[in-house]
Amino acid sequence: MGRNATLARAKGALWVAALMTAAGCGSSSGGAHASAPTTPPTAASSAPSPSPSPSTPSPSPSASIDPGTLPQTHVLPRADDPAFQAGVQDLWRAIVTNDPNAALPFFFPQSAYLQVKAISNPAADYRDRLIAWYRLDIAAAHRLLGSQAASARFVSVSVPTSKAVWIVPGVEYNKGSYYRLFGTRLTYQLGGKTKSFGIFSLISWRGEWYVVHLGPSVRSSARGIVYQPKG
């Protein structure tokens, strides 16, 4: 009887030690590290914004999560980001094949637009103006390539990141903020010649660049426009 009681007490002590060890591991590794918040400027800045810090990248949301439903960050996007480069390829494919749907993932998310715009019906503006013009501009770029569109070859995209400006609430009918960038150009080769055209403006969401205007942001009618073609 004494030996059995001793064994029972020893087993009980081992179970308690195991449970305490498991609880300690869970508490030390289960929490995520939160980044320190970055305070945005309190007024619109016309000066170029500083380059992003490579040590503080913006975390990419899961593919099943709409990034536009998440809060904005103050991370300046990088032109060498794989997601951006993939978006450029989607846009180029859409232009070559005249299939705007292929480039919709590269356009600023509607859910993010609803977060930043302080206008009466941002959903209608997004659908009837921004997306409608994007489709028209892609069709116009396809026409620019002409009958040899299938043989056009993408060369590069130039992104003047140093010219990005942080836009604050109250500017451009906004209630939210983002980086805005003018001057991006897409270069390609067609018929032995090097040519290019501009992407009128990119804006950021959570450290990623998106197209918001492929052609000019102001136009006299709903028609597709290739922005500053050269070559």
Structure description:
Helices cover 32% and strands 18% of the residues. The chain has 231 residues and is of the alpha+beta class. It has one domain. The chain is built from 4 helices and 8 strands. The radius of gyration is 26 Å and the shape is globular. It has a 4-stranded antiparallel β-sheet, covered by helices on one side.
What would a concise description of this structure say?
The chain has about 230 residues and is an alpha+beta fold. About 30% of the residues lie in helices and about 20% in strands.
Features:
single chain, 231 residues, alpha+beta, four-stranded antiparallel beta sheet, 32% helix, disordered N terminus
